[in-house]
Amino acid sequence: MTARTPERDGAPSPAGAQPPADVRTAGSREVRRRLTFGVAADLADLPAALSPWQRAYEAWRAAGIGWGHGAPPRDRAAAPESEPEAEPKPKAEPKPDAPRSRNVVRAAAPPAGAAKAKDTKAKGSKAKDAPVVAAASASPETVPDEAPEATGEPPSRTTEPKRAAGGPAPRRRTRRMRVVVAGTAGLVVVAGGALFALDHGGGSKKPRPPAALLAGALFAADPAATTDGLVQDLAVVAASGRTVVAAGTEGDGTPGRERTRFLVSADGGHAWKAAKVRAANGAEPPPGEAPRLVAGGTGGWVALGRSAAGTVVWLSGGGATWTRHLDTSAFKPGDQVNALAATAHGYVAAGAAGGRAVVWSSADGRAWQRIDGLQAGITGLDRVAASGGVLVTHGTFSRQVTRKKGKKKVTRTVRGDGLWRSADGGRTWTAVAVPQAQGSQGATIGLVAGPGGFAAVREGRQTTGRKKHRRTTRFGVLFTSRDGLKWQAAGRFSAPGYGGVERFGGSAAGFGVLVKGAKGQRTVLRSADGRAWQPSGTVVAPVRSSGLAVAAGGAVTVAGRQGGDAYLSGVNLAAVPGAVHTELAIRSLAAGPGRAVAVGSTNGGAAAWSSPDGRGWTRGQVPVAAGRLADVAFGGQGWLAVGRTAGARPAALALTSRDGALWQRAQVPAGPLAAVASGPAGYVAVGGAAAWRSSDLKAWKRAPVAGNLVDVAATGSGYVAVGGRDGKPAAWTSPDGVKWTPTAAPPPAAGPLTQVAARGNTLVAAGTGPALLVSPDAGKTWTQCTPSGARQITAATATPQGFMVAATAAPGGAAVFGSPDGNGWHRVPARGLGGREDRRLTAMTSAGGTVLATGAGVRGGAETPLLWRAPAREGKR
Length: 877
Fold this sequence. Notes:
By secondary structure, the chain is an all-beta fold.
C-alpha cells in the first residue's frame, strides 16, 4: 500500500512524487510544517478552546519532535533546550556483499525503500493513552525552521480549556493518537480515524537539497603506512618570555596548496599545541600562504608572510589563536619583507623594494606605515632588532668610488654589508661599525636584542705553533652593544669539531647558537651573558634548520625540516594533536556495473576505494606505490587507474582490477599519465604529448600528439582529448585512440583545457578560468556558454538527463550547475558548498540515477575529502 499525503486543500499527491529516500528525514522542515499547518487542526479529542499554537505543540509532541520555540504552552519551565541542526555523522557499517575489511566505512543514511505504515497499539496503563513513536533511521531535527502562525488568541501557559467564572474546572480529556515513522515514507499520524502520511513530497515546500558532507572518515587511509604523506616545514621560531611560537606550512607538495601552521608553547618550549588560524571573517584561511617572520612582545604577536595576493599579516594575543589579514596598502606586490621585530611601541619590519631599503612600522600590527627613501645607498635590509627606543638593522649598500689611476679618474661601484641605527622609529638611520676583535674576521652573523642591548656574532680563527706544530683553531666571537652605537667583543664560544655558526638567536634571557660539527653533527650552545657557554643538545645531520629562539629560563628551541617532516628540537610533533595531518585526496570517480570507484592517494601512496551505493566506501587492496592516481575508468577488461609515481623524475603509474577491490600493477610504457577513458576501441590513456591505447590492458600502442594532453573522454564516434598547445586551449578527436586530429580552435580561454565530458557527440570542456566550452558535433565547432556566477569549473560529468558541472562561485564557496545540452545552465540546489568555508568539488560521475561528486573541504586547517550525492534528475530544471 502506498501512503499518500493530502495537500492542504485535501487533494492527494500523485504516487511517486516523493523525493529521494536519502533526503527525507522524519523530523525535517516539511514534516514539521505539516504537523503545524496540516494536521494540528484535525487531531481528534483535543479541546476546541486550544489556540492554533497550542494545538501545533500537541501535534509536535505527539510525533516525538522537539519543540524549538521556547517553553511549550503547557509548562514553560519544562521547555526542552533546542539544539542546532547538525549534518549526519558518518558511521561504520559493513556491507554484506563487500570484501571483509576493517576499512569499510559507511555514511549514515535512511534506507532506500519505504516501509509500510503500521498501526502500533500501546500496552500498559501508562502507555495506553500515550502516542507511540517509531524512530526513523535519520535523526529528527530538533530546531524548527519557522514558528507556527500566531493566528487567533495568544498561547496560554496551559493546554486546558478556559472555564467559566465560578464554574468547576473541566477534567482534562485524554488524547487518543498513535504516531508511526514508517521508514522513508514519512511520518504517519492516525488522528480522528483519518490517515495522514507526512512525506517530504507533500505540501508546497520543495524537499531540502542534498548536502555536501566532510567525508574524511568514509575513505580509509593506509593502515600500514609509516608516513603521513604530507610535506611540513617550520620556517621560523620566536620567543617572548616563556611563550614560544613556531610557524610554517603543511601540504602535499603542490605549490600554492600549502596550509598555514602555527604551533605554540607556553612553558618555554617543552609542551606544544597546534594554534587555531582563522580569516578575519572567521572562515578557514585560503591555501598558498606561508608565514616567514614572527615576533612577540607586550602587545601580542605578529607574523608576516607571502601569498599570491601580496603580504599577509597574522595577529595573535597570546599565540594560541591567529587571525589573518591581507595588507595591500603599506605592502606592495614587489616588496621583499625580510625581518620583523617587536618594539616598545609596536612592531617594525625591514626589507627592500626596487633596489632600495624599506621599513614598515605599526603600533598594533594591523595598520602599517611605509617608510621609503632611507639613507642613500642602502639597497636592502635583512635583519632588524629593537632594544628600548633604538632600532638596529643589517643590510647591504652600494656606493660609487672614484680613484685616480695614472692621469685618469676611474669610478666603480662598491658593494658591501653593514649595520645602521635609528633612534626615531626608523625614519632616519646612521651607519655604525662593529670592530674586529679576539681573532674575529668576516661579516657579522645574526642580529638580536639580548640581555642589556644588542648582539651579533662573527667567525674567529687563531693559529698557534710553528712549522709542523702549527695549529689553527676556529671559534665564534660574540659582540654586544648597549645602545647599538658602540660595540665590543664579549666572549668566544666553540664545540668539538667546530665548523662555523649556522643559527644565532637571543632574548632578554640569554643567547643561543647552533654550530656545525664533524660529520654533519650540530651542537646547540647557550649562554646567559655571552661569556660562559654550555652545550644544550644536538641536532642530527638530516635536519635543515630555519630558526633558533631562546625562551625565558634559557631554553633553546631549534625549528626546521627533516626530510618531508617539520622539526622542533626535542619534540615529537606526531604526538601533538593537530600538528601533523595525514594526506588523503580523492582525485577521480568512475562508475561501473553496480559499483563506483574513487582513486587518489593517502599517506603519499596510491589508493583506491569502491562503493556499491556511494554511501559506504571500502579501501581497495592496492600494491605499495609511492605516488598518486589521477583518473580511473571501467571497460571490457575491468577497471584501469592511472597516475604518476613520486620522486624527482616521475614515471607512469597504472593499476588494474576486475572488481574494484583487488588491484595489481600494470605496465604502461609511458611517462606520467593524466587521464584515462574506455570506449569502443578499448582503453585510452593520455599524458604529456602522447596517447596510449590498449584493448586488453596488456599491449599498448603509442600515438604522438602535438600538444599537452590533460583529459580524455569517450564519445559517440570515438574519443576526444583536451589540453593545451602553445599556452592556448586545444582539443583533439580520434576514432580509435591511435590516430588523432586537432579540432577547430576552441574559443579563447584563460589557458589550456583541463577537463572534458561527453554525452554522445555533445562535449563540454573547461580550463583554468570560468569559461565553459560546448561542442554539439564532437569538436567540429565550439561555443562558449558559462554558467552565471561560476568563477572556475572544477568538475564535469554527463548524466542520463544532460550534464552537471561543479564550480567555484561568486561571491564565495562552490556551486553545482545542470544543463540538458550544455547551452543553458541553471543552478542545482546543493547545501554545504556555499558561504565562507573553502569547499570545492573536483571529481564527478554519474552512477545510474545518482550523481556522485568528491572534492575537498577544510576542517581545523587540514583538507579532508568532501562527498556529495544527488539524484541525476536534479540536473533538470
